[in-house]
Each structure stands twice: as C-alpha cells, then as structure tokens.
Design a protein that fits this description.
TIM Barrel; two-stranded antiparallel sheet; 373 residues; 11 helices; DNA polymerase, domain 1; disordered C terminus; single chain; binds iron/sulfur cluster; 2 domains; alpha/beta; 10-stranded mixed β-sheet
Length: 373
Amino acid sequence: MDPGKVPDLRSLPRAEIDRLLARLGEKPYRARQLFRWLHQKGAASLDEMSDLPATLRARLAAETSLAALERAEERRSTDGTIKWTWRTHDGKLIESVYMPEPGRKTLCVSTQAGCAVGCTFCMTGTMGLSRNLSSGEIVDQVSRANRRLVELGEGAAPRPLTNLVFMGMGEPLHNFDAVKAALDVLLAEDGPNFSNRHVTVSTSGIVPEMRRFGEETDVKLAVSLNATTDEVRTALMPLNRRWPLRELLAACREFPMKKGRRITFEYVMLGGVNDADADAIRLSRMVKGIPAKVNLIPYNENPGLGFRAPAPGRVEAFRDILLSANVTAVVRRNRGSDIAAACGQLAAEGGPGDPRRRAGGSTPPLTENGSAG
Ligand code: SF4
C-alpha cells in the first residue's frame, strides 16, 4: 500500500488500533499484540510480527500502511553522541541525536521536516518548512534509535533510551496534534512506556498553544528564550514580533504547571549579542516568580549564519550573576559539535536552505543538522 494514502498503522492511537482489529473480527488481545510489535519492539514491517496469524497480517497489509524510517546516515562523535539522518517514505531527510550521559540516555527528536519559525541562529531555520511529521514518524525515530542502540551494544532491548527531548528539527507546537498523539504512544504502558518526568517538549514561544499543551499533556515544557529585550529577540526569533516577551512571560506565569514541575528556559548564548552582564541581570528579573531553571547553551558557530560563540569565561560569569540572584542556572555544554549534532546545527546540508550552498561552498552529499525549538 502507498504510505500516506491509507491509515498509517504507526500513527494510529491505541483506541484506533482496538477499533481496527475489532472491525476485522479479532479478539482484543490481538490489538495489544499489534501495539506492542509496533511501539515496544519497534517492528519495521508486518513480516516481523511472527505471532500474528498470516491471514491477519495479509488483511492489515491490504487495508493499512506501515512505513519505517530508513537510516540514511549515522555519524558518531568522539563524545559518544550519535546523529542519525532518517529518510521518510516520501524522501524527506530528518534527524535525531542520541546523547549518552552517566545515568541517562537521551534522544533529541524532530517534529517537522524543516521549520517555519526561521530563527536566525539556527540551521534548521534556514531551510523553511517542508512538512509536518506524522505521529508515526515522530515515534519511529525512537523505535529506530532503540533498535540501533541495542545493535551497537549501548543498552538492553527493547529500550536503551531513558529520556526524550523534542528539540530537534521543527517547532513542536506548530505540529501539536501529531506531537500529542506521539506522546500518548511513547508514554503508553504497552508501548515504550517512558516516564512523563523524562520527556521534555521545547517551544520557541507559540503563546496560544502553550496553555493547551499544559492542559492536554503531562510532560515537561522548555521555552527557547534567547534574549532579554524585544529588539534582540525579534532579530533572533522573528516570531517575537507576534508574541513579544511580555506575552510569552505572561503565558509562562499562567502555565498550568503540574505539582513539583518547573519550566526550563533555554538560552543560547551568542557572543556580543545576548551575553552581557546586563542581559543576565534582566534575565534574573524576567523569570522571577516563575518556577523555572535556565539552561545556558554556548553557541556553536555555523558557517554562513554570522554569529559567534561567547568569549572564554563569559558563560560562567553570566551563570554566576543568575545564581547570585537565586535563579537556578546550568551550563549545557553542546554535544556532538564535531558531527554537527549540537543545538542549532540540524539542517539538510546541501539543501536549498544550506547557507554553505548559497555561499557556493562544497557540500557533502547528505544532511547535517541544526535544531532546537
Ligand atoms: S531554533 Fe527551533 S524553532 Fe527556531 S528555527 Fe530552529 S528548529 Fe525552528
């Protein structure tokens, strides 16, 4: 069957799988088996589902589609980070990044092919939006990664990964329905069974969707802040014209926060742009009263984008100002910058949005990556 034209089995929520199998005259336990094959064992095809009767598999093949992401490229960093480029059934290239740390193994997943937000410091932002990913394509990044990590001896089947961050290519709240459906699957007991405390969705600040996100999901929120004045934020993130800092911070204050939770503010530090002492002082005032922590992310320089990393010592000085104002702040050293897997580096290298191409530079054949809504 042609994926995209008939129900995509991997995108169906559990209730739909139940209904589908009931319509096919199957007992309820078959729905559970199928869901487990899809999302716990990460089956790439119906052929793998050895304990489903051949007649049922044939009917599923006739009435549904089941596409798996194809691994187009794998790049490994000296720090243990792995970046995968996946090819979708219609030839889009998307990326996920694996970041192992003591006590946790995190996958950063993409929610869109490209991104419409257009942050000026982000490689993905140079690509524009190609299309939203389906919930099945979001979930399948996790399945493919888990399977590959088992092959590489990085952990035990079925799920070496412990944490997920939705900070890859795309703005998750621009693809809310698919993200929400993917979260339902990823947290399901019969599926990968991630803990809601170990899953974080990051937004660039789509204010109207933030409340809905808080009300309809049970995972953690990160907000990509990156500036302390509207002038600088608008230059870095054009969506700030629509939802300026005052509105964004009001949405954070009113966010329906679960007990014991806090919002993570991501702050990419760009040398000479947003890394002055005055920025740190303003930032500490801005987040006052919001249960929050600030992640400081020193910028990774990308050719063609015109920004530079903060000067040595600047990040620590900035952090210390926040700490002295009683703001929880941590420095997140970028991972995998030698394989272009770090924050802000996810983009289809050699594609129309690649500034190296526009500059006439030589481009390797496959994708690079850029990230982080
Ligand atoms: S930083 Fe995030 S929201 Fe901004 S362009 Fe990049 S992927 Fe999109």
